[in-house]
UniProtKB/TrEMBL annotation:
PANTHER family in the cross-refs: ARGININOSUCCINATE LYASE
Species of origin: Streptomyces synnematoformans
Protein's recorded name: Argininosuccinate lyase
Gene coding for it: argH
EC category: lyase
Matches recorded under SUPFAM superfamilies: L-aspartase-like
Pathway annotation from the record: Amino-acid biosynthesis; L-arginine biosynthesis; L-arginine from L-ornithine and carbamoyl phosphate: step 3/3
Location (main, coarse): cytoplasm
Gene Ontology molecular function, alphabetical: lyase activity
Keyword flag Cytoplasm: yes
Amino acid sequence: PDVRLWGGRFADGPAAALERLSASVHFDMRLAPYDIAGSRAHARVLHRRGLLTADELTRMLAGLDRLAADVESGAFTATVADEDVHTALERGLLERLGPELGGKLRAGRSRNDQVATLFRMYLRDHARTVGGLLAELQQALVGLAEAHPDVAMPGRTHLQHAQPVLFAHHVLAHAQALSRDAERLRQWDERTAVSPYGSGALAGSSLGLDPEAVAAELGFEHGSSGNSIDGTAARDFAAEFAFVTAMIGVDVSRIAEEVILWATKEFSFVTLHDSFSTGSSIMPQKKNPDIAELARGKAGRLLGNLTGLLATLKALPLAYNRDLQEDKEPVFDSVDTLEVLLPAFTGMMATLTVNRERLEELAPAGFSLATDIAEWLVKQGVPFRVAHESAGECVKVCEAEGIELDQLTDEQFAKVSPHLTPEVRTVLTVPGAPPARDARGGTAPAAVAVQLAEVRADVAAQ
Ligand code: ARG
């Protein structure tokens, strides 16, 4: 039998080449549970309108339950001739209920409003999954900060030694970025909680159905679409989801890049756990940070998904166009990518070992306490312009002599500036420097403890 939902006005069936191009069922079958949920809600509004009798509704819902179970168990599978998930499930329903009853469900709805609704439902569910995985990664970062509350490290700008910071401060900076990503997911969900079901092909339906009832049954907290053309044509929810997932990928890639550097012989800041590293097929000694590299690589893929989708949407006239079938694969891929990447990445972060001695040894290196000399001079009443010059001269002397700032003699300090008395040494130790930066957001242990508490509360609220 012809399974097409649109055969009536055609004398000839579709060419095989058209069928192959047109088919989306191999990727949109993952929407099947949502399609069936939509059908249940739709059957109820048809019944309330007198378009299904009470008995028909009961049989229809039973048929949909059987179909859902058969999809789940694999007893029902789609074929390429089914074109898409909606067509496949209609065939499944007809096979279970016969053409008389099975053929009644399609009244007052279109694949256009269906697919726009189901795609939202699918992404809302997965936004929650991704949010949970993100919280686990944040938890791993919180764990690292908690385990190393007082370890200093070289803080960098331009990848050059800048000023010493606490390792916990640095790690929590990444956690802050992830907190904003989690917030983006929640805010996206708020905006996406509107159901297009009932928008029909584009103009709504003449059957007097109740889109608000369908929206409520499908869990859309903000009701049904306020404009049926927008309901079927809008895909900004998909693009925004692709952006948030790309942003997560990019934020994770920034952690990844640091882990890759930190795990090198030259840095030696961290050692990755064996179970989260890989070896080489030829070099027996190798231990590679593949998870971090894959995270870095997959960020590219995630932002490719975003730009690809935006390119599909650009200049698309209203309302539904078949181009929109291209909306799903990139976004599904972003979901799949993060759901596989995040658990591995979290495992890597949760199990790495921090080389405390190495971090502390390097924290003051590279004249990273020069700013502390300048700020100490300011506290002695020296204008910052002059203080900056003097501290710079100290660095120049050190470079010429091949020594660090705290190795300058009293005479060398005095020669640079009469204000540089031996007391300046109080700020030239790393344990001395971070605690001084105790304002909100700073690197002092007390300020970092506040950040830790804030991220913890944030994770707990998710
Ligand atoms: N499979 C289509 C999609 O994913 C939905 C079907 C709409 N097709 C149509 N000819 N109006 O966008």
